[in-house]
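Minutes, project check-in
Item: structure for the 79-residue chain
Input as provided by the requester:
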Amino acid sequence: MAGVYDGVNLKLYLNGSEIISGNAYGNLTTSTNQLSFGAHSNTPLNRRFAGHIDEASVWSRALSVEEIKHNFNETKLPA
């Protein structure tokens, strides 16, 4: 799964394919807070994501669909 925001559009990809998109606006802000995946920092333990997250990354720019597909194909586990 990948999410991309370019300052105008917000897109969500699953398995390298776009599944939804929409117009969005606004600037992303920076923070010195800790980055969390699967829960907000003050989420109770019983409400946090209970699975595994693998190959997480954060980019400083919006990736192209070609880059999303390449990253998806390069990180697949063998069947």
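Outcome recorded: DSSP finds one helix and three strands in the chain.
No further action items on this chain.
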